[in-house]
Amino acid sequence: MGICDSSQNKSNNSYQPNQPNKIKPINKQHQTNNGHTRKERGSIKYFAQNNNTEKSNGLILTNDVIVSDSGFNPEQVYQKIKLIGEGAFGEVWQVRHKALGKDFAMKIIEKSYNCKPKEILNEINILKQLDHPNILKILDFHLTNDKFYIITDFCSEGELYHEIKRRNQFSEAETAFVIHQLLSAIRYCHKMRVIHRDIKPENIMIMGRENNGYLNVKLIDFGTAKIFEIGNMQKGLVGSSYYIAPEVIRGKYDESCDIWSIGVIMYIMLTGVPPFYGNDDDSILRHVTEGKYDTTIDAYINLSENAKDLIRKLLKFYPNERITAKEALNHPWFQTAEFKVTYQTINTVNPIEAKEMFKNLENYRSNNIIKCAALAYLVHQNTNIPQCLEAMKLFKEIDLNHDGKLDPNELEHGYMKYCGMNKTDAKNKRILVFANIDTDNNGYIESEEFIRACINPRLFNSKNYLKFAFDYFDTDRSGNISIEEIEAKFYQTAKNKNMNTKKELKKLFDTIDINHDGQISFDEFTLMIKDIMNT
Ligand SMILES: Nc1ncnc2c1ncn2[C@@H]1O[C@H](COP(=O)(O)OP(=O)(O)O)[C@@H](O)[C@H]1O
Ligand SMILES: [Mg+2]
What's residue 346's pLDDT? Predict the structure, then answer.
């Protein structure tokens, strides 16, 4: 049964994905020649700050270095397999990397749809800054005269929307497992001052299923996301009818509109019906603006008091009374025995593997930023391989407050739990290790920083992987990497453009260029990757 055909005379309410319920900003929508419309896109002007950096004598390693325009038309590098999504302004394809044989998703946006490069770059820039286990990763992008290409991880299990349609209702523990991941992702986004504005089951992809069938999810579609400044109100009417918060319709809102959308999803998953419904957008929006949802249906009445309490707090009509993501993650609903046991069983790493990973942390060195960039690129492109997934599990296990970052205390706790250390030893070990991994001194270790440091890079010791990374730096495909090519990557971050860093980069380059011919050959690159643990 579909989620809206279940009860309470809601059978006429056609709950459709994407376009029918997508609200366009009435005054700002871009009308195109062929009648298609595009969503409003946010501004990029607040992107000056970047927390996700690594330093090496003044040089910093940001995501701009490891995700930059490849310079190659992706249609030559990837083979189209299947059309998996059609949005208001383009297509999403399942594609296969011709050399690697691995599948990715490719979003193609036609410039003829009247979209400004600045608007597309907003989605690319926002995705580049976000490093969280439950947020889709951007792997590559390319801009041509007529098209924009965005390459991301391929989520083979489809949308949460179709899962809801298929299953209609979920148990409280299954729902809590999904809602917890969404709250963690949105807590991280809000901390990074990113407001998503279009959270809905069509924009939540299933990454995989645990043995008990529980869903691992990722938030996608940052096309309408925006960088906000604390205290500043947003104005654009953006969102989708079932999930949009009342204050967005009223025209003045902040990041708490994302919390409301998560509340709607929680209600739908638990009861099988949307809290605000209608036969068309107008009547759905009317219900939203009234803010009253049905608490008399059996499916709602039968929920635990904790579940009802969290729904009430997520769907508070006035945004200033609404719970924050941080508070919601601490709600008693996530403390119930069933959820806790499941969460811990799923995220507990094999103790021997965990100990091995902690040992790798000690050996990780970040003193040659070119090596770091190569490893960072390989990790970024391969976070879905088993070793990286295991490292991610360990990360989640250690991330006690679920904010998607590790602070020194959390790492210490990890040493105590997995290496059997007492508090003093764990603290000493943490002091030794933390600075190496957190070389930007921002006081936190983000998930990919952690994965890079705790996997054994020898897992990338296959010609395909190495060639893949080599080609990223060898942008002119000459078969050698020049200092100019390395500079071009590092200069994606403006802070790296000065004489001191230029000299430093050359010095580091020379240590990799063993035969001093002024080029890094494929053999030298391979040696460098293998050497990373032992520097
Ligand atoms: N990485 C991905 N893996 C699998 N499917 C995807 C991926 N990205 C997008 N899709 C599919 O394409 C649809 C549209 O993509 P999305 O980024 O949401 O663009 P739009 O802004 O057009 O909604 C999604 O709802 C989903 O079904
Ligand atoms: Mg979408």
Answer: 80
